[in-house]
Amino acid sequence: MSILDKVLPGLTKKRILNNKEAIRVHSWMKVFFGDVIPHRFTSDEKLADFVRDNEYCCVGQSHSYNGVQIVPDRNAVLMGKSTLDSCDCYPVDGTIKCGPSTTIEELKRKLLDDDLKMFNSGNYMAQTVIGALVTGTHGYGAKATMADSVTELTFLDGSGRPVTLKRGEPDFPYAVVSFGTIGPIISVTLEATKLVSYQSDAWITRLSKKEKLKKGSIATSWAVVPYSDPKDPLIMLHTLRPASVGKLAQRTKPSLFSWARLAMFIIERYWAIDRIFPRLRRPLQRLADRIDIRNHRRTITDERDLDYLYDPEPLLKSQRSPDILTGLFSTTHTAYNLAFHVPIDRAEEVVKFIMVETDKWRSLRFHLKSLIGVRELSDKSALPFAGNYEGPTVAIDLFADTRDYAWLERLQREVLFEFDHIRPHWGKSAIVPEFADSLDQTDMDRLRALHQKHYPSGNLKPNERVRRLFKLADRGAPQMAETSAAK
After folding, report:
1. Which CATH number fits domain 198-434: 3.30.70.2520, 3.90.550.10, 3.40.50.920, 3.40.50.300?
2. Do strands 33-39 and 23-26 pair parallel, antiparallel, or not at all (unpaired)?
3. Has this prediction a pTM greater than 0.85?
4. Which of 113, 148, 309, 352 is most solvent-facing, going by the fewest CB within 10 Å?
5. How far is 433 from 451, CA to CA, in rounded Å?
6. Within a 13 Å sphere around the CA of 318, how many CA atoms are in the beta-carbon half?
7. Which strands form 423-424's sheet, in the order they lie side by side?
């Protein structure tokens, strides 16, 4: 067997040497990548014909940081690049049904036409809805896991036949958050809810003040300044509660000529300063910590605002400032992001542990980028692979320069070693065998059985790390289809 046969089994030497069809697909921030044969579809029927005759994997919009959507040397069904973007709202039932190419923003705008909104969502609306659901994407507050709103889904089995599962059926909860082990999912139906205006409060304060300030809120997230005092860190706290009649927007600011005002100037622009002057990360954070600033801003959100969870000001950020600023500076576009779920009652302990550990690594020239994000998922999910399946959790988001992503994986290992019941975020965690300790073995067996039931020939190929964690056998060598697109 030649080297070419070993590197790309299933392809002839002629096709390897003259292949102009393969493209490189990347995870978000391009840390993980692989060469695949791309396939785009204009109908469910053509997609079914393709699935029946080929080995394949499914790719949404490639927003996952950890490469869970990357399966090299395979046919890649590019759901985000296809035109299967149907989206139908049923206001009487309070539900909406969409196809695999529909993005979160498109779904939200469709709901607005009938004065409805999603229960919760992540902060990146260019994701496909189905891609976000199957990787456990979440917001914060009640019903934080997006997939908890799914009432029905339809996927194609290994023979290209549609299989519909509804809430209440035994296999349903295993198919909803399934991170590439079930697919392609060709439609989902989600519950929606009525529009509400919220009182959004944002504080710069100390962690010790968090419980008092969040009292009465229905959703809470906080961001920790990683190089502040780990005994009582400086945090940015955000709470939501239904807007009350008579409550008005307000904002408090430090005196114009004061150290606190200077620190506020730095913090409000920290994402840009961090990008331009990375060496100043720790000194600037230590300065803000010593000044010990306090700040409060209250915003009354517009009930038709698409992203009030993350940006309570009117309109989208892209509509208020040039997109180039977002692309140059925001952590979504400039940093590697690793996340995992922690029981909510241990959140503060885990955050302080992370702060102490990373400060030890300064001699190794590693620094966390931006802030440590903490989103509280305040209820229990019914889905076995959701982050909050065992009860309320927080999702802890860590950021670093892309070249330093391995340091974040080391931090994850340290947390897994020190704490119990750490659950994965399927689009951001490093998917490692240690997560098996926090996932019920019966549930893992159920998902494996569901995959093997519907793909007995093994033609659907999940990511390698997922296969190892769930002990999914890789049956057969890769087989590439001869065409790069289905017309």
Report:
1. 3.30.70.2520
2. antiparallel
3. yes
4. 113
5. 19
6. 9
7. 250-252, 295-300, 198-206, 234-242, 219-224, 372-377, 393-400, 336-343, 423-424
